[in-house]
Amino acid sequence: MPVLSGYLGSAEQGEHILGIVRQVKAANPQAKYFCDPVMGHPEKGCIVAPGVAEFHVRHGLPASDIIAPNLVELEILCEHAVNNVEEAVLAARELIAQGPQIVLVKHLARAGYSRDRFEMLLVHRR
């Protein structure tokens, strides 16, 4: 049984979700937590309430088995700029070192791919 989370209205909501993740994993150790850390938009920047981005960096990321940030969110999570695909792979590996087994990066247009295509990058634990 997977647990999937997306947009959070508050950091407190994220804490409740992690409580559910712990309960599900206690009942089924094979369960996975898939986190879509909705925080930013390529043209709008950070779009969430105060505290949500910090929650994802400090708590959501380490608790995730699979995390699916877009390029803006990847930069927020790894706390540095990502300018090309090679840097995106390295940043995804930084996230994997913090907990997730898989990082699925969405919307790679700013990393050198075409803006009229929806490019994704999947990086997994070796």
UniProtKB/TrEMBL annotation:
GO biological process, one term: pyridoxal 5'-phosphate salvage
Enzyme Commission number(s) of this protein: 2.7.1.35
Keywords recorded for this protein, A-Z: ATP-binding, Kinase, Nucleotide-binding, Transferase
Domain annotation Pyridoxamine kinase/Phosphomethylpyrimidine kinase: ranges: 18-108
Chain coiled-coil ranges: none
Keyword ATP-binding included in the entry's annotation: yes
UniProt-recorded Gene Ontology molecular function terms: ATP binding; pyridoxal kinase activity
Protein's organism: Escherichia coli
GO cellular component: cytosol
Gene for this chain: pdxY_2
Keyword Acetylation: no
Protein name: pyridoxal kinase
